[in-house]
Structure formats: structure tokens, C-alpha cells
Amino acid sequence: MDIRGRSPPAPRSAAGLLQFPACTAPPRHFELTNGRAAPSGGRGCAHCACVERTAVRRCEAVRTIGRLPSSSVKNSSPWCGLERGKKPCTMKTMTGSNEFKLNQTPDDGISSVKFSPNTSQFLLVSSWDTTVRLYDVPANSMRLKYQHSGAVLDCAFYDPTHAWSGGLDQQLKMHDLNTDQENLVGGHDAPIRCVEYCPEVNVMVTGSWDQTVKLWDPRTPCNAGTFSQPEKVYTLSVSGDRLIVGTAGRRVLVWDLRNMGYVQQRRESSLKYQTRCIRAFPNKQGYVLSSIEGRVAVEYLDPSPEIQKKKYAFKCHRLKENNIEQIYPVNAISFHNVHNTFATGGSDGFVNIWDPFNKKRLCQFHRYPTSIASLAFSNDGTTLAIASSYMYEMDDIEHPEDGIYIRQVTDAETKPKST
Amino acid sequence: MLLSDVRREVWFWTWTKYWCSESSGLLSVLSISLGKKKNSSLLVSNISLTIFNRYCNRDFDDEKILIQHQKAKHFKCHICHKKLYTGPGLAIHCMQVHKETIDAVPNAIPGRTDIELEIYGMEGIPEKDMEERRRLLEQKTQAESQKKKQQDDSDEYEDDESAASTSFQPQQVQPQQGYIPPMAQPGLPPVPGAPGMPPGIPPLMAGVPPMMPGMPPVMPGMPPGLHQQRKYMQSFCGGNMMMPMGGMMPPGPGIPPLMPGMPPGMPPPVGPRPGMPPMTQAQPATAPGILNRPPAPAASAPTPQPPVTKPLFPSAGQAAAAVQGPVGTDFKPLNSTAATTTEPPKPTFPAYTQSTTSTTSTTNSTAAKPATSITSKPATLTTTSATSKLIHPDEDISLEERRAQLPKYQRNLPRPGQASLGNPPVGPIGGMMPPQPGIPPQQQGMRPPMPPHGQYGAHHQGMPGYLPGAMPPYGQGPPMVPPYQSGPPRPPMGMRPPVMSQGGRY
Fold it and tell me: Please, which residues 322-351 of chain B have a Cβ atom closer than 8 Å to chain A?
């Protein structure tokens, strides 16, 4: 499939059958829209049995080829390989319809994925194999790769052409993606765990296990301050001109990036277990905090009591097998910039999308081969990058291959329901 | 006479109430008459507030019972009998689980079968339906006031008779049938059953008066009330008939004891309504059935208290585990489901998915426990209970820290001062580190070693090449660790012990 999604003329298989690419129409999630039952198969795409009415128009194969070939396999659509009439639109959608796996993924686990700030074309991936890679998503190819001396734990875009990354080697590197120039900006005394950019204040923020947060001026680039935290920094997130830091010991600190002389708010995480990830709402009203115990809390930044009353927490990413409930850490959170809904990924391999205002789950994707290490929505909210990578929750065991899945998400999956 | 007075008052009360509520049965009638003198104005003011079912226009005393009724009759999957909470929830369930489509709410009157409206109890009812109901009720009250006059007349008439005489019935039948149109609800099945009523009346009449002080509607002389009463007696109000029969209550005090039995009896009789004709013959047979049913709804009545409102979210504060109950997957509070259902917590889509039940309490307890363990120094997690297991290593360090300690991530880091450690070497070197206060390498997450760690870290940064000096305990280190050291690896080796404290902390 080329960049524009048009399919090339269909090749012929060995048996002489026309082989068509999978119907690109996303399966219709009828149960996610308004509960209306799916229409009968007659209204669905005649070619791929997905019941999206518009699939007939969007099914690229039809447009380019123009007719439905006969298939020797009874009842299976040559387009999608699905049983004809079978509805693929279940909650757990199949990979291949609107999702694909990136090629040339790192050799070891993936620690972080980030989309470029202004396009969904480029994805920055940091990995435990000490590399940071840049992918061209629509083309499914790796554009660039650079190395650290140790496993890279986080990466971030300063702007579409500069990537910053840090990891176990305790060094913070900036890399110019156009010129492939590397620049060692500075470091911490212990591995760097988080790298983020604050556009409002134009500063890069890093958090490290040496219990400090450092600010960096990206233009020079140089260190713009070191601020000590009560504990090791596990996660941080930028909200407007504020910085929310989650540390060990379940502490949460809110800093004002323009005035780092003092901590704006000191809080304790409302969850009883170790903080795993914090992400701020795009509307800057609050943040979402997840723990290792399959729980997510939605909190608000405004300290006034009437706003604080609205905070809540819920359980998620838990599976029950033979009466034992398996509780998984929620490793990754990513917000949809437009709708203010968020996706969570856990070590159970599931990705859920939640509507924090109506307090409902909007969608759950199919189970990925292994733990979800990182999630990233693109800036426009059309694409979700899912890094499925074993996190060593159970030590070094045989695990499925790590991979990065790129999924086109629809409004039905990410938009809050009006009812 | 006391009986007639009570009868009259209760009759009037119940009758007016009966008219006011479209499909109320004796239950709601009696509920209002209970302990109160009739007060038509009070009754009128209550009209718009009555709790009614939007799908079948039935009235209920309590929203809880209404919800039970909705779940059992309108939101129940016909395939697997799973009770959902809303119409859309039922549609989604049938689609996902059974691959079947549903386009109408089961057992709903035509015109109210839209399955896409999310109605829960009294919430979500569209405004126009509320308007429609108010109009109907107002019509009823007007009709009732007319009827009152008629009733008064007939009541006078009735008082003169000691017992309901069957002679009254034929006269009543006609006006009753005349009353059917104003009273008839669209889609009320009883209407066609009216012709079948008369034969049923005499047996009811005969049996009723002696034991039905609370059943004035049964008395002849209440044509419309009687008619409706008949309907409802034979329908779910058949339960009313049944129970008093069992109770044999004295006139006055008989009414209150009747009431408690009524509400639980409300939902079950919905079933009999469609089967009204059979009821006339089967009244005695249904008595035990109805009597059996109240215990079941009563048992489940107390449980679904939280979801009466929109999904609840316990504030995630310290009281999360104890006070408001945990919220299950899909934001649903777990308390309510704990008692009612035990479906496995498949992460399916419906917004009110059932979730784990028995693990609720255990996860509460496990959630409460780490509050102490986390604040204490040896930060291990109390993770498992009999029914839940936390998929996370025991130490309270982050997954990345733990992974960073694996040997394969240590080898890559040539720089001194790397916080990388190998676990295997940690062991033997740990044996050489007794002088280091409280930093056994196997122990991780210990807070006290922090300051020493900081010092060592500083030492590291300050003197990368001066390892032996920076590590007094290792002054003897090199000679003691010849097996571990070769020339090149020595500096990293030498680095390790103090770095191990870092790792130990991690």
C-alpha cells in the first residue's frame, strides 16, 4: 500500500487467483456507536463482509479492480480472507484491517514511543537495545537510528527535527534528525528515566533516578537548572506550563516551570501502590495516574475542594482466570489531544480507551502478544502507536516477540459518547 | 360501621389513586391509603412524582423495584437470560455474545420500544414521555373526579348492602366496559381481556369481601375501579388477592401488613398480566407462586443500591478500599454486582459490565495492606491473596529499575559511575561488603543507604580513576577478589560495590 492508501493492481497467487489487499475500510464498530445492531449482511461491503456501509466506497480493491473475482474458497472473501457475511466487527478487532506492525523493530524491548508533534508520519522509538529509531509510519520503514551507550529509557521530540533521549547510560543526547548529528547535552547521576518537552516554556525536562529533575534549554542546548525531588523520578508529564512528577514512594509533585523555586503542590498518590505512569490532560485540568496494581486515578490540578471532589479511581487491566484475579501494572497512558479521552496499556496486553468525563470505557482492542510498554496518540488523534514489549514482570522468561503496532483509530473508538 | 367506613375511605383513596396511576395495582393503591385519610389534593400532587416504568407504563413504589422490574422484564437477554442494565446494554450484549440483533425492548408497549434510549429506572426518560404521562394522569384525575360522583352514588348504594352482591356485577360490568377507553393504556393487554372479566368477577367478589378490607376496589360499586382492579387482580394484582387471602386480615390493621408484602410482589406479577385469562382459573394455583417470588426479589432488593445513580466513582483517597467500594472494570462499582451476579469479568464493552465478585473484598484488603508496607522501609509489596495476584516483582522498585539490574544491561555501560549492576557478581561482592552499613545487595529499596549512596555516587563522579581510594572497604578488595578480576574489568569491578549500593537501593 502506498502512502495514499491505494492498492496496486492485484497480483495473482500461485493458484491464479487474484489476491487483493485487505479491505482498508475499518471494521464498523456498531456496538460502540449507539448500540444499534449491525445491519444485515446485504448492506455491508460485498467484498470483504465487513459491514461498514461505506466500505463499498472505500474498499480500494473494488475501485482499482472493479469487480469481485470468483474465489475458489467458498464463502471467503478474497479481499479480507474472512468468511463472507461474517462480521469482523467485534470488540477485539483483528490486526490487519486498520492496524499494522512496524518493520525493523528494535532487537530488545521498547521503552517509549512518541509521535512527532506536528505530523503522524514520524514516530520516535527508544529501546533497551540502546538505539533510538525514527520510523516513517505510513511507509512502514525506519528512517534513522542512533545509539546510546546503554539502554534508552525515554525519548522526546523537541521539534520535528530534533530528538532528545536518555537512559541507563545517564547521558542526555540531542540528535538532529535531518543532519544525523548527535549532541551530548548533559547527564544525570543516575539513569535518566523521563524526557519531555514543554512547548509553552520551551524547555526540555528530564527526570532521573538520582532524584532530580533537570531543565534544559533546547536552543543552546544547556542545562537550565537542577531540582531535587523527594524520591527517584518514575514518570513525569507536562501540562501547559506545569510539570507533574511522579516519584517512588507514591509521591506526586506539581511544579511551575516558570518558577521552579518551590514546589507548587505536593501530593500523595491516591492509589496505594507504586506509581507507574502519569499523563496530563490536554485541557490542562488534571492528570491521570496509573499504578502497578491495575488501577488508574483521575485527578485534578485545581486544589479547591469542589474540584477535588471530582477525582476518582477505577480498576482496570485485570483478568480473572480460574478464580484467581491477575492484576497487571498499567504501564502506559496516552491522551487523545482533541477529545481528552485517554488510552491505557497494561501488562496484560490490552489497550483500553476511556472517557473520563462520562466515566466509561469506550473501547478495548484485541489482546497484544505481550505487555504494553508504551502508547502514543498522534497529534491529530488519528493514529495510535502501541509498543508491545515484555516488561520483565516475571523475570527473564520466554516471551513473545516485541513489536510496535500502528493503529488507525476512529472517532467511534475515541470520542466520548454524547448520551 | 367501621368496616364500611374504612372500606369507603380506602376505596375512595385507592380508587382515585388507581385512576391516577395508569397501571397501578392494588399495591400502590394501598400504599397510599396506608395510614392516611384520603386526600385527593395530596394524591394529585403525588401524581407526577410516581415512579413508573416507561416501557410498560407500570407504576412502582420504589425506584429500586422499578429497576428490578426493568432488569427482569425489559433488559433481559432472551437467549442467555442475562439481565442487563439498559436497553443499549442489552443490544450490545446480544450482538457481541450471541451475534443477534435486537431492535425493540422486550415486553414494552408499542411506541415505547426504542432500544436506543438509555433508560435506567427513572433516569433517561425522554421529556415527551414524561409529558405524555402527566397528561394522562391529569386526564385520569379529571375522569376520577367525575367518577367520584358516580362512585359516591354507588357507594351510598353499596353501604346499604352488607356484602358485595352479585346483582351489582352485571350493572357494573357495562359501565366498567364503558370505562375501559379512558383507562386503557395503549397496549395494555387487559383490555381485550375485559370480556373475560365478568366471569371472573363473581368468584372474586365472593371471596374478597370477607378478607379484603383493604380491597375496596373489589367491592361492587366501583365500576371503573373494579374493572381495573379486576385486571390487576388477575394480573399482578392477582398477587394482592392471593396474599390477603393467605393473611385474612382484619379490616383496619389488615392493610398495613398487606403493604410490606406488596412491593416484592409487584415485579413478579408482571408476568401474570399477559396471562390474565388463565389467572381467573388459576388464582389459587398462583398463590404459592407469588408467595414464593417475593422472597427472591426481596433478597436482591438490598443489593443494587449504588447503581441507582450514574456509575459511581469512589474517590480514590485512603478510603478507596474501605468506604465506597471499588469500581470494577468499566467504571462499574463492584458492590452491587458482588451479591447479584458472578459473571466472569470479561472485559467486554457494555458500560455496566459485571466484574469480579469474591475478589472484591480480597483486593480491598490487599489494597489496604500495602498502605503500611509501602511506608515501611523494606518496601516489598503484599501482593497476593487467595484470589488475586499482582503481576509484578515483589520489590517496590519500578519495572525498569529491576530490568536495569539484569546482567545484560550492565555489560554495555563502559562509563564509570554507571548505575548498572550484575546480579551474579552482586552476590559474592556482597559478601565482601559487610562494612557497608545496611546495604546488603540483595535487599533493595532500602532507604537508609541513600545518603551513603549519594556519597559513593559523588565519589564516583569525582574520582573515576581513584577507585581503590574511594572505596575503603575495597582497599582490601583487589587482593580479595582476584578470581573476579582481570585487568580490564577491574575498574568496573572496583566500581561495583559502591555502585551496588545504588543497585541495592534500587
Answer: 326-331, 334, 344-345, 347-349, 351
Contact status, residue A174 vs residue A158, Cβ threshold 8 Å:
yes
**What are phi and psi for residue B460, nearest 5 degrees?**
-60, -50
Of A37, A169, A393, the CB nearest to B101: A37
**For residue B488, with 0-12 CB atoms within 10 Å meaning exposed, 13-18 middle and 19 or more buried, which class applies?**
exposed
Is B412–A130 a contact, with Cβ atoms under 8 angstroms apart?
Answer: yes
Considering the domain boundaries, does residue B6 fall inside one?
A: yes
Q: A387 has which bridge partners?
A: A374, A404
Could A292 and B356 be called an inter-chain contact, meaning their C-beta atoms sit closer than 8 Å? no
Domains, in order of start, for chain A: 99-413 (2.130.10.10)
Q: CA B469 to CA B463: how far, in whole Å?
A: 9
pLDDT at A209 over 90: yes
Q: Does residue B189 contact residue B273 with C-beta atoms inside 8 Å?
A: yes
Quick check: A320 and B344 CB within 8 A?
Answer: yes
Taking a C-beta distance cutoff of 8 angstroms, is the pair A378, A407 a contact? no
**The three three-digit cell numbers of residue B116, written as one number:** 436506543
Give the pLDDT of residue B381.
60
The answer to whether residue B117 sits within a structural domain is yes
End-to-end CA distance of chain B: 88
In angstroms, the CA B396 to CA A234 distance is: 12
Q: With respect to residue B61, please indicate whether it lies within any of the assigned structural domains.
A: yes
Hey, which residues 351-390 in chain B have their CB within 8 Å of chain A? 351, 355-356, 358-359, 362-363, 367-368, 370-371, 374, 381, 387-390
Using the structure block, give the residue that is written with the C-alpha cell 502508547.
A375
Residue B49 — pLDDT band, cuts 50, 70, 90? low
Residues of A within 8 A of B344 (CB-CB) are 320
CA distance A11 to A211: 58
Closest CA to A169 of A185, A187, A150: A150
Of B138, B137, B136, B205, give the one whose Cα is nearest residue B170.
B205
Residue A379 cell numbers, joined: 497529534
CA distances from B355 to A89, B306, B366 (A): 24, 15, 17
CB contact under 8 A, A272 and B370: yes
Decide if the complex's ipTM is over 0.85.
Answer: no
B116 touches chain A (CB under 8 A): yes
Other CB atoms within a 10 A radius of the CB of residue A326 amount to: 16
Radius of gyration of chain A (CA): 22
Q: Are A5 and A24 contacting, i.e. CB atoms less than 8 angstroms apart? A: yes
**How many Å apart are CA A222 and CA A202, to the nearest integer?**
13
In-domain check, residue B333? no
Write the DSSP assignment of A324-383 as a string of letters.
Answer: EEEE--EEEEEE-TTT--EEEEETTS-EEEEETTTTEEEEE-PPPSS-EEEEEE-TTSSE
Residues in CB range of B455: below 8 A, 6 or more apart: none
CB within 8 Å: B345 and A320? yes
Note down the domain range covering B39.
Answer: 1-146
Q: How far apart are CA B111 and CA B329, in angstroms?
A: 34
Asked if pLDDT for residue A276 goes beyond 80, the answer is: yes
Rounded Cα–Cα distance for residues B346 and A321 (Å): 10
Residue A172, classed as helix, strand or coil, is strand
| Residue B24 neighbours by CB distance under 10 Å | 27
Listing DSSP states for B237-283 in one string gives: THHHHHHHHHH---HHHHHHHHHHHHHHHSHHHHTTTTTHHHHHHHH
In this structure, chain A runs to a length of 419
By three-state DSSP, how is residue A208 classified?
Answer: strand
Across the interface, whether the CB atoms of B391 and A91 are under 8 A apart is answered: no
Asked whether B504 and B440 are in contact (CB, 8 A), the reply is: yes
pLDDT tens digit string along A280-323?
A: 999 999 999 999 999 999 999 999 999 999 999 999 999 988 88
Q: What's the number of domains chain B is made of?
A: 1
